[in-house]
Amino acid sequence: MGGDGVVIPVVKLSGAIMDGGSALRPSLNLGSCAIRLQKAFETKGAPAVAIVVNSPGGSPVQSRLIYRRIRDLAKEKDKKVHVFVEDAAASGGYMIACAGDDITVDPSSIVGSIGVISASFGFVDAIEKIGVKRRVHTAGQNKSVMDPFLPEKKADIDRLKKLQLEIHQVFIDLVKQARGDRLVEDKDMFAGMFWTGEASIKLGLADAIGDLRSSLKQRYGKDTKINLIETKKGLFGNRPAPGILNNLSLDGEALSAGLSDGLMTAIEEKALWGRLGL
To answer: Over 50: is that where the pLDDT of 1 sits?
Structure first.
């Protein structure tokens, strides 16, 4: 399948999937990887693009946008997509992995978690203890839905659950379409469970055990070359941050905001990895 010396572009998609992020700690989203994906698929003479996924999940919208971009580029450029899972392809990470024509995993990779989760905190008792009263005025009776400083309402929870079920069904449909008859019927498959790489193959969620370099050389020849596609790094990481970079010497407030955003992003990402025991 290919000749000696073929070059396979590789794009690494790592981290929690979140819109925005910060200059100090970029998140994985369509904006952060679109240029790399475009460059990879435009590699002349490459029969395929390899995507390395290492993500605990996150935003379902950004996950699907990345999935869709990969599939659209694969069709437009007529290239195969080989996905390789490192530590995890869970939740939105697995949605992205489904963009591959095949999925290769490590025996210890975490794969699956096909579900939807919402998490927050309730501070009602806390503010009562310190003598704080919450005052909320809205135009529209549902504007304060799930306010963490107000008691939960059954109607709000039911509404949230309905939204979750709709998003969950989108996820399920995507997996079924991508994996087709490779899936093995299992009652836990779409219940948010996750599995090791070995078990995921038995369920049809993945295709093979292996690593990127060995798998590509076996498929395209021993002289296959790997070309990692990267964007130019700025002072704060993979993506330049013009707004902050231009104001570093003048605007301490911008730097402080960047540090704060980076800390919050780190906490959210740690929580997502923590669900998988990683």
So the answer is: no
